[in-house]
Every structure is written in structure tokens, then in C-alpha cells.
Specification:
It is a single chain. This protein is an alpha/beta fold. The protein has one domain (15-229): Spore Coat Polysaccharide Biosynthesis Protein SpsA, Chain A (Alpha-Beta Complex). 31% of the residues lie in helices and 23% in strands. It is built from seven helices and ten strands. It has helices at 44-54, 69-83, 101-113, 135-143, 178-184, 193-200, 221-229, and strands spanning 2-4, 17-23, 38-39, 42-43, 60-65, 89-94, 122-126, 148-154, 168-177, 206-210. It has an eight-stranded mixed sheet with strand order 1-10-8-9-7-2-5-6, sandwiched between helices. Helix 1 (44-54) runs parallel beside helix 2. The longest helix is centred in the first third of the chain and has 15 residues, at 69-83. The termini are far apart.
């Protein structure tokens, strides 16, 4: 596994990617939809979609949960504010979000397959609650050339522990070959399907780009309170 930094960023590479934003989590531990938390006056789902658009993708697939009607409508309405001026954005509803992230990812792949006119080679996969994610980091991921180019970040403190057994996390946002992603689709299952496939790749087929703040995501009221105290999210 090769580590890269911003020194390899090449702004001259033409965009050849689509983006999948996985935003179908039910936020049970948080107690409110994390997609609607606000950052810089925008719902978090809109903020992340706008970050994705900065990379000039061929398409943006935003996967949301088909859950409580009122919540679904509010989330969909928030994203729809961006779709009118940006026809590349497509909303996909996951009727079974309880099945895990792999189900959302599979639905997004189906949506990309239906867009036959897209000349894309790679897919950038993002979550919705890494509140310190930046556009330059996405650019750095896209500047690398490999089967998988993933983010690498540490566990930071007790508020934001992701995995008690790992000090360095390799995960989203990440860029993966579109052909390879399609080949994985039929075997995706549960919350860890994609990570399983990445771990199975030979080390030379995975490049990582470090970003020390990506482990700050929002899953609990304690994490939300801390993020607001730090000014990362609006009150």
C-alpha cells in the first residue's frame, strides 16, 4: 500500500469520474438526521454534494433512505435545491437502509449503469458526516492512478473512536476503478462489503492519501456537541 500526499496533485488531469454519496444512514445513535445538520448555513448533505461538484464529476449519485415520509421529504427537498442548476445530480432512494451501506452502494452502481452516455473510468465514494473533509483532499485522491485510492486517517480521541483495534483507518472518501466496482457489486453485503474487497487487493493496487481529521464524523450527541463547540457545525 503506497502513501501519497498533495505534492503529486495534477490539476491538468481531465475529470473522468462519477461520485457516489452514501447518505442513507438512519442516525439512530444521533437521534436526528445527520444529513440535515448544518455547516456554513447549509444542510450537511448539500454541503457534501457541493464538495463533490467541485471535482467536476460526470454524475453525482446521492443515496438517501426511504424511511419516515416527513424526514425523507425534507432530505430530498434539500438535495433538490441543487439538482435544478446541476442536472448531473441524481437522487436514489434505498428502501432497505437497515441492510447496511453495501445495499446503498449497489443501488448507486445500478444508477450509474443506467447512464450509458457517461465516459467514466473511476468512482469517488463519499459519506455525509466527515465534517472536516475538504475539496483539496478529494482532488488529491483523484490525482492518483490506481485500482483504489483511499483516505487514511487515525483514531484521534475517545469521542471519535472508529475501531478500537486500529490506529490507522483506510476508508472513505475513496476512488475506485469503475470496472472493478462493478465486478464487486454482486458480492456486496452488509456494512463492510467494500472494505473487505479493498483489504483483499494486493498492496501495490491500493494507494492511500493521509488526512488527519477525517475520523471526526458525527454518530452520537456527544460528537455533535463537540463538533459544534469547535465551530465545525452550526448551532
Amino acid at each position: 500500500m503506497n502513501d501519497k500526499d498533495s505534492s503529486s496533485f495534477n490539476q491538468n488531469k481531465p475529470p473522468n469520474h462519477a461520485v457516489i454519496i452514501l447518505a442513507s444512514g438512519l442516525s439512530h445513535r444521533l437521534g436526528q438526521p445527520k444529513q440535515l445538520l448544518e455547516k456554513q448555513g447549509k444542510p450537511l448533505i448539500n454541503y457534501m454534494t457541493m464538495l463533490a461538484l467541485v471535482t467536476q464529476p460526470k454524475a453525482v449519485i446521492v443515496v438517501i433512505a426511504q424511511q419516515d415520509t416527513a424526514i425523507t421529504d425534507i432530505i430530498e427537498t434539500a438535495v433538490n435545491r441543487l439538482t435544478a442548476p446541476n442536472s448531473s445530480i441524481q437522487i436514489v432512494s434505498n428502501p432497505n437502509p437497515q441492510l447496511g451501506m453495501a445495499k446503498s452502494l449497489s443501488l448507486a452502481i445500478d444508477a450509474l449503469k443506467s447512464q450509458h452516455n457517461l465516459a467514466m473510468k473511476r468512482v469517488l465514494i463519499m459519506g455525509v458526516d466527515q465534517v472536516l473533509l475538504s475539496a483539496p483532499h478529494l482532488d488529491q485522491l483523484l490525482a492518483q492512478d490506481n485500482i483504489v485510492v483511499a483516505s487514511r486517517y487515525p483514531n484521534l480521541d475517545e469521542r471519535f473512536i472508529i475501531d478500537d483495534n486500529k490506529h490507522d483507518i483506510v476508508g472513505v472518501p475513496l476512488v475506485v476503478s469503475y470496472n472493478v466496482l462493478q465486478s464487486w457489486q454482486s458480492s456486496l453485503s452488509g456494512d463492510k462489503g467494500l472494505r473487505h474487497f479493498i483489504r483483499a487487493l494486493a498492496p501495490e493496487k491500493v494507494t492511500t492519501v493521509a488526512h488527519s481529521n477525517l475520523s471526526y464524523d458525527i454518530d452520537t450527541p456527544k460528537q455533535l456537541a463537540y463538533a459544534r463547540q469547535q465551530g465545525w457545525l452550526d448551532y
